[in-house]
Amino acid sequence: MRVRIAAAVLAAAGFCVSLGAETNQERGKRVVNECVDALGGDRFMNMQNREEGGRAYSFYREQLSGLSFATIFSEYQTGVTDTTHNLAVRERQNFGKNQDSGVLFAEKEAWEVTFRGARLLAQDRFERYKETTLRDVFYILRVRLKEAGMIFESRGADVLQNVPVEIVDITDADNRTTTVYFDQVTKLPVRQRFERRDPKTRLVDEEITVYSKYREVAGVEWPYAITRERNGEKIYQIFSDRVEINRPLKPQLFDLPSGMKVLKPI
To answer: Each residue of 119-145: b (16+ CB within 10 Å) or e?
Structure first.
């Protein structure tokens, strides 16, 4: 680890002359561009869909409250012009050994799907998913990178859990900011943070996501371990044992099955 930190320091020193005239926004943009290249460049930017499978854990007050085998399918959408406010991805989360239950996230709503039928989820749950997606660093880089009004501003360098990092604030036209910590050596995201006001309590929640165990998949670097925290407490973890990118997915995967019974909202 000391060798790694020393290497990062030397690398930073080697660039100090050329980067001395950089503004915070120029440095932030450079760090983000280096990250895109590290993630796979054009292969990352042309990723059309993704399938992740592994063990998913949920937590309540730091105690394990659920464990399931999970498969998450994501498909990016073309033709969405207002990516500041609208989602450009569809997602299906299947759970259990038989993958017979799950959640379907569309562009404007979400459904819980089980053998009993499909139930429309409460709008606040969908809004939380939407906000989390819009502020996810991988989604920002893949979908929102060239969005009008997007600002990338460097907050300088630091050391996070013995890893030298570059810190960048990514702010969109609606003044929503996600702070991302990029590994100075690999250039990959290792942590992100943003604040969100709970619409019911009006209190501010701090949302943190940690990314690790990157592996190369079809020319794209992707984290196989993801941990989410809210207000300092762990709420979710997924450890993928397989990730596939740009494999053929059935279009109906992201639609409710024809004739499925629609259950009343709880």
So the answer is: bebeeeebebbbbebbbbbbbbbbbbe
**E strand map for the chain:** 49-60, 63-76, 89-95, 101-105, 110-114, 117-120, 151-160, 163-171, 177-183, 189-197, 204-217, 220-230, 233-245, 262-263
Going by C-alpha positions, the residue among 53, 75, 49, 71 that lies closest to residue 254 is: 75
Q: Is the dihedral of CA 252, 253, 259, 265 positive or negative?
A: negative
Distances (CA, A) of 140 to 124, 215, 236: 22, 20, 21
Residue appearing with tokens 């906000």: 131
DSSP-assigned beta bridge partners for residue 120: 111
**Average pLDDT, stretch 45-70?**
85
Which residues have CB under 8 Å from 34's CB, separation 6+?
A: 182, 187
Q: Report how far residue 77's alpha carbon sits from residue 69's, in angstroms, rounded to the nearest whole number.
A: 26
pTM score, whole prediction: 0.89
In the beta sheet, which residues pair with residue 220? Answer: 217
Quote the tokens at residue 257.
């099955």
Domain spanning 2-244: which superfamily?
Lipoprotein localisation LolA/LolB/LppX (2.50.20.10)
Cα dihedral: 6, 11, 12, 15 (round 10): 160
pLDDT at 18: 47
Amino acid at site 134: L
Is the predicted pLDDT of residue 11 greater than 60, yes or no? no
- 3-state SS string for 132-183: HHHCCHHHHHHHHCCCCCCEEEEEEEEEECCEEEEEEEEECCCCCEEEEEEE
Q: Give 138's strand partners.
A: none
